[in-house]
Fold this protein.
Amino acid sequence: MLAELLTGWLDAEGELSFFVTSRRDPTLMPVMTNRTAPHGGPADRECAQPAVPFGSDELTELDGGWLVDVERGELHPRGSRLLLRAGRIEAILSSGQDRSATAGAARRVDLGGRYVVPGLCNTHCHLQIVMPSLLPSGHQNRLTRRHGWDQRYRNLTECTLRGVTTVRDTLTHDLRKTASLRSHSSRSRPSGPRILQAVLVAPLGGVFTPTRGIRQRIFDQLLGWSTLSYDDPHSGAVVFAPNADAATVRAAVDRAIDERGADAVKLYDQRERLLTFRATATLMSERQLEAAADQCRRRGVPCTMHALTVEAFRRAVRAGVRSIAHLPSDGLLGAQDIAAALAAGVIVEPTVSLLYCLAWHGQTGMPVERDRLQLLRNLRRSSAQAVAAEHWHPMLAPWFLAGLARSASGRTAMLGGLYDGRRIYDYYGGIVSHGIDNLERLVAARVPMACGTDAGAIPCTPAMVDLELALWPKLLGEAMATPAFMLRAATMTAARALGMASGAGQIAPGAPADLVAYERNPLEDGSVVGSRAAAVWRDGEMVVGAERLAADKG
C-alpha cells in the first residue's frame, strides 16, 4: 500500500517524479528514423516533423482580415494581404498593390475580418509529466498512469486548437518519450505543435541528477520505475563530475547536442531537493556555468537556466545564458542586477502559472501580499471549472479540482500523515511577494519577457498559455501588462528565447508561416491570446479552421 501511495511521487533522493513506465507506454517501442540521433533531435527532426507541408510550393493568399504587427503593437493597414509559400511568409501586400502579384495563387483564403497573429510559443513545459494534483492519492496515481498518454495527446491537440504552434520540453528523463510525442504530433489531425527538447547538463548530485546508489536502485525496483543511466543516449541528462574543469563541461554540452539532439541546454541552480527541500544538491561553479553558456553560444543552441533566488539570477546573468526560468523569490533584485540583465540581453520566463497552483499562503503578511493572494483565490474560483473541462481528461479533471480544494482548505497531509504538502507551498510562497515585486521591477525596466507555463511540474498543461497570460495584468496591473506586451511575450520574444529562425514570432517576409486567426482584436483584448482560435497555420499548412474560412482554388 505504501508503495502504491508513493508511486509517481518520491524517488530515493526524495525527489518529485512522474516518470513511470507502464505497459501502455508506447515508448517501449521507440520511434526511430534513418538518421543517427535516437530520439528526435536535430539529426532526424526533418523526418519526424517535416518543416515544409505537402503542396507548399503552391502560393496561398490570405485576404480579408487584419494583420497584427506584434513588434510595434499595431495593426497593418486595412486591406493588407499575406502570401505564403514553402512554409514561409513570402510577402505582405498592401491594399493598393497590383493584384497581379497574386494571380498565380493556388488558394485564396478569406479571413472574414479576423485578426492574424504569429503562432504562439510555450518556452517552458514538461510534456511527459501528467500531474492533475500536487496532493495525489494512490487511486489518482493509478488513473494518471492509465490515462496519462491520452492526456498527453490531448495536450498536443489543445495546443494546436489554441494557436500554440511551438512548445519546448525543458526536462525529461527518457528522450524516447519525446520521439513518441513528435511522431504522434506529426501524424495526428489536427497536427500538434512543433516540439523542441532541452537536455539537462548538470553535475552528478544535482537536484535532478542524483547519485544512483543501492538505495535508488531498490526504490526504483520497488515502484517499478525504469530510470535510465545518465550515460544512456536516450537519457535527458548529461552529467559531469562536480569538480569538472571547463573543457569537460564544454564536452558535456557537445554531447547533449550531438548525441542527445538537444534543441536547448537546461541548467539548474537550486540547492534544495524537491519535497524534502534539504539544501544538499550540488551546484555548478561559476566557471562551469560560464563554460556551459559559452559553449551553447558557440554551437548556436540556446541555454536556459532555472533560478529561484537572487543569487541564482545573478549567476545566470554573469554566465550569459539566453533565458532565465522563474522569478527570484528569496529577496529583491537591485538596480545593478536589473541593469546587468538588460546589458546581457537575457530573457526572463516568469512562469507565474506557478502561483495558480502553489500560492496558498504568504510569507511576509504585508498588505500587498494579502491582496495578491485574494486575487489568486478569486481567479481560481472563477476559472477552475472551465480549466478542468477544457484541458483535463474527464477521468483526471475531478482530481484537478479536488487538489485545488484540498490546498485551499489546508488539508495537505499525505501518505497517512507521513508527508505534509505544505512544505511545497512554504518553499514557493516567496513568489507571491518578492517574486512579483521583482517581476514589476524587471518589466518596468523593459527586460524582455517570454511566455512559459512550467506545465507538468505543476497541475497545468502546455496549452494553458491563456491562463499564464491572464495572471500578468491581475498581478502587474493592466497599465503594465498591456495586451500588446503579452502578445509579444507569447510570440516574438518567446521565439527569441527558443532560438528559432530569424523572423520567427513575427508577421514579416521570410518568417515561418506559423499563424493564428482570432475573432477579436488581441491588441484590445489580451484574453484572446491562447483562447480557441478560428484558424491556425503551421509551416504554411492550415491545420485548424478549414471549415470556418472560405478557401477558393485560384
Remarks:
- The first strand starts at residue 60 and ends at 63.
- Residues 367-391 form the longest helix (25 residues).
- Residues 1-55 have pLDDT under 50 and may be disordered.
